[in-house]
C-alpha cells in the first residue's frame, strides 16, 4: 500500500525495497515477497534513473527468485510481461554499468529457466541485448555465464529465430568459450549455448572448423565436468552431421585427435548414462565418415564400443 501510495517518490520506493529485503529470512513472508515482484520492477521502471533503486531492486529480486527456484516453482508463471520488459529496459539503460548489468543478466538467466518466460524474452528482443552485454564485458565471468545460460534457454527449443541473430549469438558464445576455457562453470554455459545454436544449423564454413576446434579444447580442459562433456559431445555430433569440415577438424586438430578425447571422456564418465548417451550420439556421427571410422579401428575403439553395448544395451 505504501509503494502504491507513493509510487512517484523515489526515496519512498528505495526505503520500501530496503524494508521488503528485511523479510527475506522469514519463510512465512515468501509468498508475499513473490507477489511483490511486479511492484518492485514497476518502481524500478518508474524511477529508471535511480541507480540505487535499480541495484537494491535487482538484489531483492535475485533473492526472491532464488528462493522460488529452491522451492521448484516455475518463476515464469509468477512474472508477467511487464516484469520482463522492465528488466530489459534496465539492461538497455545501463548497458555501460558493469555491476548493475551483472545483476540484471543473472536475473534474466534465472527467469529464462521457465519456458513461458523464455518465450516472452524472445518476443521482447532479449537475444541482441544478451549478445551486446557479452561483447561489452567479455572479461566479466558472471555476465558471460548469465548471458550464455539465458541464450541456451532462448534458443534450445525455438526453430524460427532470425538468421542474423543466430550468427551474432554464435559469435558471442564462441568468444566466451575462448576467453573462459579454464573456468569450468563459464565454459559449461558457453558450450551449452553452442550446442543449442548448433541445432539451428546456421554456422558458416569457417565457423564449423573454428567451433569444432574450440569445443575440443573445452572438452580437453574440462573433462571432469559431466554437463560440459554431455553438451559438448552433443554439439560436436550436430556439427559433424552438418559438415565434412567439422569431421576433418575433428581428426586433424593440432592439439590432439578427437577420437582419443572421446575415449578419455567415456572412461571418465562411464557410470553416467546421460554422458554415455551423448558420447554414443557423437560416435554415431563419427562412423558416417570413412576416414574417421578407419581411425577408430586403428585406435582400438572396438573394446570400448563392446563395453558400452554390454552396459547400456539401449545405446
From TrEMBL:
Keywords attached to this entry: ATP-binding, Kinase, Nucleotide-binding, Serine/threonine-protein kinase, Transferase
Coiled-coil positions: none
Signal peptide: none
EC number per UniProt: 2.7.11.1
Top-level taxon: Eukaryota
Reactions this protein catalyses: L-threonyl-[protein] + ATP = O-phospho-L-threonyl-[protein] + ADP + H(+); L-seryl-[protein] + ATP = O-phospho-L-seryl-[protein] + ADP + H(+)
MF (Gene Ontology): ATP binding; protein serine/threonine kinase activity
Enzyme class: transferase
Full protein name: Serine/threonine kinase-like domain-containing protein STKLD1
Amino acid at each position: 500500500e505504501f509503494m502504491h501510495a507513493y509510487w512517484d517518490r523515489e526515496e519512498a520506493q528505495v526505503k520500501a525495497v530496503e524494508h521488503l529485503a528485511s523479510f527475506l529470512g522469514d519463510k512465512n513472508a515468501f509468498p508475499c515477497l513473490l507477489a511483490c515482484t511486479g511492484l518492485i520492477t514497476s518502481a524500478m521502471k518508474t524511477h529508471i534513473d535511480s541507480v540505487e533503486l535499480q541495484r537494491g531492486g535487482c538484489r531483492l529480486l535475485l533473492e526472491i527468485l532464488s528462493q522460488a527456484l529452491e522451492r521448484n516453482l516455475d518463476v515464469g508463471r509468477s512474472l508477467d510481461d511487464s516484469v520482463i520488459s522492465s528488466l530489459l529496459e534496465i539492461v538497455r539503460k545501463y548497458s555501460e554499468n558493469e555491476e548493475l548489468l551483472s545483476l540484471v543478466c543473472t536475473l534474466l538467466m534465472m527467469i529464462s529457466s521457465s519456458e513461458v518466460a523464455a518465450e516472452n524474452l524472445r518476443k521482447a528482443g532479449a537475444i541482441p541485448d544478451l549478445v551486446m552485454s557479452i561483447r561489452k564485458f567479455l572479461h566479466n565471468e558472471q555476465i558471460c555465464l548469465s548471458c550464455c545460460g539465458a541464450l541456451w534457454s532462448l534458443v534450445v527449443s525455438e526453430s524460427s529465430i532470425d538468421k542474423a541473430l543466430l550468427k551474432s549469438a554464435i559469435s558471442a558464445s564462441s568468444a566466451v568459450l575462448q576467453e573462459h576455457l579454464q573456468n569450468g562453470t563459464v565454459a559449461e554455459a558457453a558450450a551449452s549455448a553452442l550446442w543449442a545454436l548448433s541445432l539451428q544449423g546456421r554456422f558458416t564454413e569457417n565457423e564449423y572448423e573454428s567451433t569444432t576446434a574450440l569445443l575440443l579444447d573445452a572438452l580437453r580442459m574440462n573433462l571432469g565436468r559431466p554437463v560440459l562433456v554431455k553438451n559438448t559431445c552433443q554439439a560436436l555430433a550436430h556439427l559433424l552431421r552438418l559438415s565434412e569440415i567439422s569431421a576433418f577438424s575433428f581428426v586433424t586438430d593440432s592439439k590432439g585427435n578427437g577420437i582419443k578425447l572421446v575415449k578419455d571422456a567415456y572412461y571418465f564418465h562411464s557410470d553416467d548414462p546421460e554422458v554415455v548417451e551423448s558420447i554414443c550420439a557423437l560416435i554415431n556421427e563419427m562412423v558416417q565418415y570413412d576416414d574417421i571410422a578407419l581411425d577408430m579401428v586403428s585406435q582400438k575403439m572396438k573394446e570400448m564400443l563392446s563395453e558400452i553395448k554390454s552396459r547400456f544395451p539401449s545405446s
